[in-house]
Write a structure and sequence with these properties.
The structure holds two protein chains of two kinds.
Chain A lengths: L3 E3 L4 E4 L4 E7 L6 E7 L6 E6 L3 E5 L2 E6 L4 E6 L8 E9 L2 E4 L3 E6 L1
Chain B lengths: L3 E4 L2 E4 L5 E7 L5 E7 L5 E7 L6 E2 L10 E5 L2 E6 L8 E8 L7 E3 L3 E5 L1
Parallel strand pairs in B: 2-11
Antiparallel strand pairs in B: 1-3, 3-8, 4-5, 4-9, 5-6, 7-8, 9-10, 9-11
Classes of the chains: A mainly beta, B mainly beta.
């Protein structure tokens, strides 16, 4: 079992729709969870962090965490073509950040 | 958030040679990290660069191949030694923000091609 697993994608949504990205993790002791966005040829950019169960909203982005189910998700509302990128889920255990394989999102105009 | 720069941004090197990548952070940070990202793949942690002590390497990475320096709280280097084509990759430096949470921020990366 991989330490961090993401829905493999690629995911394609129309402009204005909600994009839903999912992630599960294996280390039950993990405490910190992150979503990064990576455009082609660029380095990862942190877009959301979440530390406690529930929802965290930041503009069009909502991160959801369920530690009992070991599940993290990212919702992107009103998706825009500029949201087209690879989204990486990352889980912090101790000081070690482990990344999922990423989900490639395409938002079609 | 920390602003991180890396040099060089890219390089083409011959097999058997070594390349040193520099990482500079605009503020003092406790934790700095080095990652590798191979084409089409996710990030793999190479090592944690500890200030004042030896780096902590992940399984599959060794100090002889990837020596790391961390002379102060804003700077680190990664050397890729005795390179082979399999070392062709993007190498990324990151720093962990110690002002609040545990967010890590990444530098722009160094694209290395070994011929």
């Amino acid at each position: 079992q991989k330490e961090v697993e993401q829905n493999s994608g690629p995911l394609s949504v129309p402009e204005g729709a909600i994009a839903s990205l999912n992630c599960t993790y294996s280390d039950r002791g993990s405490q910190s969870f992150f979503w990064y966005r990576q455009y082609s040829g660029k380095s990862p950019e942190l877009i959301m962090s979440i530390y406690s169960n529930g929802d965290k909203e930041d503009g069009r982005f909502t991160a959801q965490l369920n530690k009992a189910s070991q599940y993290v998700s990212l919702l992107i509302r009103d998706s825009q073509p500029s949201d087209s990128a690879t989204y990486l889920c990352a889980v912090l255990s101790g000081s070690r950040l482990t990344f999922g394989e990423g989900t490639q999102l395409t938002v079609n105009p | 958030s920390a602003v991180i720069s890396q040099k060089p941004s890219r390089d083409i090197c011959q097999r058997g040679t070594s390349l040193t990548i520099q990482c500079q952070v605009d503020s003092q940070v406790t934790m700095m990290f080095w990652y590798r990202q191979q084409p089409g793949q996710s990030l793999t942690l190479i090592a944690t660069a500890n200030q004042g002590s030896e780096a902590t390497y992940e399984s599959g990475f060794v100090i002889d191949k990837f020596p790391i320096s961390r002379p102060n709280l804003t700077f680190s280097t990664l050397t890729v030694s005795n390179m082979s084509p399999e070392d062709s990759s993007i190498y990324l430096c990151s720093a962990q923000d110690t002002s609040g949470g545990y967010e890590q921020y990444f530098g722009p990366g160094t694209r290395l091609t070994v011929t």
